[in-house]
Amino acid sequence: MNEYIDQTYWIAIAHLPKWHTERINRLVIQVVHENKMSWANFFDLDKKEWCELFAFNEKELADLEAAKDDMPRLAFIAEQLQNEGFQIIPINSPDYPVVLKENLKIKSAPTVLYIKGRKGLLQEDAVAIVGSRKAGNKALEFTDQVAKKNVKELKVIVSGFAKGVDKQALDSTLESNGKSILVLPQGILTFQSGFKKYYEPIVNGNVLVLSTFFPKAGWDVGFAMARNAYIYGLAKEIFVAESDNKGGTWEGAMNGLKRHRKIYVRVPEPKEKNANLKLIEFGALPVNINGEITEFKVLSSDELFETVNNHEVNEPQAPGEDGNRNIENDIISLLKRDSYTSTEILLALKLDWDSRKLTSFLKKHPNVKATAGKPPKFTINNVISPSLFG
Amino acid sequence: MTRQQAEIQLRKLFGFNQFYDLQWLVIENLLAGRRVLFIEKTGFGKSLCYQFPATQLQGVTIVFSPLIALMRDQVRSMVERGIRAAAINSNQEEDENAAMIAKAQNNELDILYIAPERMENATWITASREMKIAMVVIDEAHCISLWGQSFRPNYRRIVNLVRLLPKNFPVLATTATATPRIEADIIEQVGSGLIPVRGQLLRSNIRLFVVHVTCEDEKFFWLAANLPKLKKTGIVYTGTQANTDLFSNWLQFLKFKSAAYSGRLDGEARIRIESDFITNKYDCVVSTNALGMGIDKPDIHFIIHTQIPQSPIHYYQEIGRSGRDGQEAFAILLYNSNDDLELPRSFIDGSKPSASKYEKVIAVTKKAFLGTNEIIKATNLKQTHVRVILADLIDQKIINEQVDGKCKKYFFNPEAPPLDLTAFEILRNAQNQELERMVEYTRITSCRMKYLCNYLGDEKQTSCGICDNDTNQLLNVVSSDVMIQKLQEFKETFFPVLEVETHRSHLINGVASSYYGVTNVGAALRHSKYEGGGDFPDWLLGLTLKAFRKYYGDPKMDLIIYVPPTESGDLVKHFAEKISSALKIPISHKLIKISPTSPQKMFLSGISKKENIHGKFTYQTPDEIAGKSVLLIDDIFDSGNTIKEIGQYLTVMGAACIAPLVIARTVGGDI
Questions:
Q1: What is the pLDDT of residues A264-288, one digit of tens each?
Q2: I need a labelling partner for B463 at 20 to 30 A (CA). Which of A151, B268, B344, B670 fits?
Q3: What's the rounded mean pLDDT across residues A92-120?
Q4: Burial label, B430 (beta-carbon count in 10 A; 0-12, 13-18, 19+)
Q5: Residues A92, A112: Cα–Cα separation, whole Å
Q6: Please, what are the domains in chain B?
Q7: Residue of chain A with shortest Cα separation from B403
Q8: pLDDT tier at B265, thresholds 50, 70, 90
């Protein structure tokens, strides 16, 4: 950052109320890159100039006006951050981790990072170890093994500072004198107990604490969900110790698979109750307790549905003649087993459909019903009705 | 707003007809959202430059000022005029402060004065975020500069804040004393947007004199002879706390109304002396430079220095407290070229602790997240040193302050640069040069005011026409046999008081027979304690008994108890036995230590000293103590922690009164 004062402006920009990350990032590009403007100059403009140069809508204009008025207050926060040795790393800074930008793109790369610790860690190769807060012993053992193995390979371990797998990942890393990035589910100024607890590793440069949220914000379930994307984003490889079929780990992993990222999932023991296998079905790479790729036999989607298809021997078959026919079949078969979101269906069936197309297809399908929730899941409607294509 | 429009408002709100041109120049810039550094002498009307815009801007103007008394007076006069002004400071109750903060948050204030140390206060930091702030004012802005030697660490955070405020946000920094170098430093720190406006620094009513003396006693003589001739009231500045005691007692001995004032006094005593000073109850107050900055008293008629200040800027600042009513005032420096440089030189040399002490603090902060007191304990360094070191380490970005709950702690920066000692060397050289310029001031034969103004960057100044050199009225010291005898008499009957009284114990203030270094008492103690000289000599006994009689008169004492020894064997015991037989008060040997303590002088901070002896004393038959008046005897009184600890213990055991009596009090003391 060239200008000291920019810190205040960055805080203002990063937390414009109800602005999507992408909208904010586009504004950054417009102002900083296209117009080669400093934030001071930008905020010096009046409403008319803002409209002419940036074509803001009314709501955006009002938000920016409010931010302008709010600036002295934000200066106090910036001062506290500065005084207490926190750093603000905006998205255009050379210190901003390249991998985060590559993984999350303009759409969801956080505009500003607040950190404490040795910022060099942000540029080193990192792996994320993720999993449930209530993970079982096998999952924790896996976490321990994977953390230590990656520490040996001098990789930084990214985790989310929650209970269970996160905590294990951090402990195992520190135990083996490794390096770690903690991605907080809260504003960085509210992490007091953590700073006390991990004082030495932070001072030694082994731990970096990172937050993307408003510095004063307390823990929030929404933040906890949102920061999973940043954990996945900061890492080159992702290890899943244990995942439920919903929640942060699941969402993050599914999102990663969609982006064709390498996600390693521990193959569960026969009696474990979790959704690890499902992730493997959706294309995650199976690994053993040591984090090594294993020969685990995954049913391909064809095989997976063969058995199901067997029940539907009466269906008329016209192979190669009607693609839709097969896809519909595959979908119905899949939905007979469980409920899935459209993204999950696309992954499982390796369809090259747009997810919107699939969603509207599913919504119109008489044999499919949507369950409540966001995103909605789809399952088979028990009322038998004639096939659309029948 | 045009000047004409502004002056209409000015008449309405403040009752003045117009601005000075320089005032308007400053105000015009502020109203346009610019930043100004205004260097102008005391009494010019600098405060109107922010008070007026504060009434015109939307939101509250925050004034950082270290002068609590000044803020109080300004708030009062503004409130009388119907301007919405308030102050928050440590002299007010917390709920009063909270009420003011709430008013500011509700947009019910135009101007809010706060002490710079509030920037260290978590409650304020949180509260300030909820305010709509229109302008920030930094009073006494020279405290920003590291070159000013009056640098205050809590100004650092104000500078940080100002640098983070948006570009078009008005900021005013004001000072009466800034050399061109300090001015440049302030601009460099606050940012290039700061427009300097410089007024004339000449104080045309202050008459400057230098009196050359050849020994310390001559300062006593000069005061005795000349204080009656000076119009009252004024300040006598000394270099040390012990000297405030000595000079003030000398003046009292001569029947002047005088009081000693220094950081050694508790808050209550300070406020009492300040208010008696303001209402002219004293002929003079004898003080370290602790007095004056916070005092809003326009009619100080003389300022006498018994010790040469560290630099012309210090001197200008201190004498600037006189004559603010425009009446003639005298600023007189008593200077002994043989001895007087020792103190400022040792101050300059000692102002930065040794490198190894810095390394010690660094090592400790690397290991754990600690607060100041914990660092003092962990390093066993002096409080004053630890504070200096912490401020420097923050300045060099080696550590950061970080709030932990309600405490302030220190976080080692994982990307800390190595400690830079050259910065201290540069500072020390600069300080030595400034001291040289101060010495030069005593030697010049040209106008002294011109010399000071030039030094402060006011090059245009012509001669003042009223200083000793300009009027050729050179002052000197005349000593007479009568005076010499009087001083001798004073020294033999001056016994330092030990201020140990608190509400929490039955300890009363005690007395020492002498200051350790002022007479030959110190040498005698050293000879007995550390050079195997045997029991304390009888003349010390005589002197101590004299101190007892003079201070306590003929009190009813039931019991003599003495402080059990650490390393000096039975010296104190024998001494107490002799006192017991002389005063015919029974002595008890039953106060003992539960476990051995280290000698108090091993510990460099009050905190560690306190801890060393806390809970270490016990009285074998405590029933004996109940209801008794106890004379408590020791040889040397330093921090006073031992006496206080025993006093506390005996109070708990039911003692009615504990009266301390010691042979010598040290000059320094840690706290």
A1: 999 998 888 899 999 998 889 999 9
A2: B344
A3: 95
A4: middle
A5: 9
A6: 3-198 (3.40.50.300), 206-340+440-483 (3.40.50.300), 348-420 (1.10.10.10), 495-665 (3.40.50.2020)
A7: A84
A8: confident
